[in-house]
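Design request, tokens follow.
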């Protein structure tokens, strides 16, 4: 179950587009959209990971009770 937590995108990744644009100015026009896309991914994977861990935990708990 601990491996399941690895599917979530880390929130710190949202800062990557801004950091890249500082070293590569030609990417500056993409910062806003890339940040929004990463933020969407962070929110979606955070919610999805929570749901999947809860479901897996419930399934494993049921199997232990039945045995």
């Amino acid at each position: 179950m601990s491996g399941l937590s690895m599917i979530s995108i880390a929130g710190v990744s949202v800062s990557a587009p801004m950091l890249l644009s500082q070293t590569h100015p030609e990417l500056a026009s993409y910062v806003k959209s890339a940040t929004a896309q990463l933020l969407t991914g962070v929110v979606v994977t955070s919610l999805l990971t929570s749901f999947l861990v809860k479901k897996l935990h419930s399934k494993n708990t049921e199997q232990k009770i039945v045995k």
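Comment from the thread starter after seeing the answer: thanks! The chain has one domain: 2-66.
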